[in-house]
Each structure stands twice: as structure tokens, then as C-alpha cells.
Amino acid sequence: MIIKSADFICSNTQVSKLPPPIKPEYAFIGRSNVGKSSLINMLLQKKGLAKTSQTPGKTQLINHFLVNENWYIVDLPGYGYARASKSKKADWNKFIQTYLDKRESLQCVMVLIDSRLEPQKIDLEFCSWLGEKGLPFVLVFTKADKQSNLKTDQNIAKFRKAMLAFFEEAPQHFVTSSELMLGRDEVLGFIGGINNSFEIPEFDEERYSK
């Protein structure tokens, strides 16, 4: 897929204020500090489009980026950042889950996993929740340039094995590096394939006109 344009459209915490669900969209989410903003910028080849920060948990809104004027990347708040208050975490979790569970045009959740780490309970629990809701998702392993290919492969194998406690088979996965542009063609090719068969879903227009 060739990226011709990528533009920030909106940030908010209310599903009713999102763009009408008439274009396919892909939600990017992971633990705080997993490299989400860097990955989005790498995929779209637009440095600084998604705001990177040394402070984990910086993304606190649902951010929509329109790509090639016909599909969206949706940047969701990271989960698992301990310094947020319990009430704030509860608010974030509520609107993230509402978006994921109710958004009519959501095609796939891209769950970002730090390839340097052993399987993390919080990642596995989030994938389990997606499975319970019947939401399609894939795994995107990040920061593969930070270690040997062998170590990356070992950690991915451990994570996929851990997934079998919840699923009959592990979902599709991609290995990426924002520094090396690794995985860019594969991820964009996956999205492009889904876009080709997208049909506008039925939705409640009043829900998006508040």
C-alpha cells in the first residue's frame, strides 16, 4: 500500500463525537511505552503525526488519523500505566471498551506487544477480553531492533503459547521495528486486504449527531 496522505482528524473521549462509521478503521492499543506513536508514524511515514512522549500514558484520548482519505488509524490510550488515579483509569477503561465493543466500522484491533518482554499478564488479559467480545485482533510485536532475532522469536513463541490458555489458536502476528521500518509492508498489506472488502455498516445516525 502506498501512503499518499495522512491527517489528524479529531481527539475526544465520547463515541458520539467520533466521525460517522462509514470508513474502515483499525485501533492501535498496547501497554504504555510500547512504542505505539512511533509505530503509527513509521507506518504513515509522517514524523510527529502521532505524538511520542518520554512520559508513559500520554495518550488519553481517542485519536483518529485519516489515511489516503479512505480509512482510519485510531490511536487509543495505553493500558497499565500505574500513575493514573483509579477514577481516571476507570473512565479511560470505560470509553476504550465502549469504543472497541460498539464501533460499527472497527475492522481489527492491532494489539501492540513489546517483543523484548516475557508474556505480560495485562496483555494476555486484554487479548482474552477481546476474544470474549468476539472482536477481531492481531498481535503487533514492537521494538524488534532492540535485541537479537533469536530473542524476539523466543519471546513471540512464549506469548503465542500463553495465548493457548484462552484461545484454540494464536492470532496472526507481525514483527515490527519503527527504527528499521521492519514490518511496515506486512501491516499495511494486511490492512489493505481488509479495506478491499469493506462495506459501510448499518448504524444509528442519531448516535453520531449529538
What's the arrangement of secondary structure elements?
Layout: E1 6-12, E2 25-30, H1 36-44, E3 62-67, E4 71-75, H2 86-102, E5 106-114, H3 121-133, E6 137-142, H4 149-163, E7 173-175, H5 184-195
Parallel strand pairs: 2-4, 2-5, 5-6, 6-7
Antiparallel strand pairs: 1-3, 3-4
Assign the CATH architecture: 3-Layer(aba) Sandwich
Q: State the major sheet.
A: 7 strands, mixed
CATH homologous superfamily (4th level) name: P-loop containing nucleotide triphosphate hydrolases
**Structural class, from secondary structure content?**
alpha/beta
Would you identify the regions where 5 or more consecutive residues have pLDDT less than 50?
A: 53-58
Q: In which range does the helix fraction lie?
A: 25-40%
Pfam families: MMR_HSR1
GO molecular function, one term: GTP binding
Cofactor: Mg(2+)
Protein name: Probable GTP-binding protein EngB
Task: Give the tags.
210 residues; GTP-binding; metal-binding
Describe this structure as you would to a colleague.
This protein has a single domain, classed as Rossmann fold. The protein is globular and about 50 Å long. The chain is an alpha/beta fold and 210 residues long. 31% of the residues lie in helices and 20% in strands. The longest helix has 17 residues, at 86-102. The N and C termini lie far apart (35 Å). The protein has 5 helices and 7 strands; from the N terminus they run ββαββαβαβαβα.
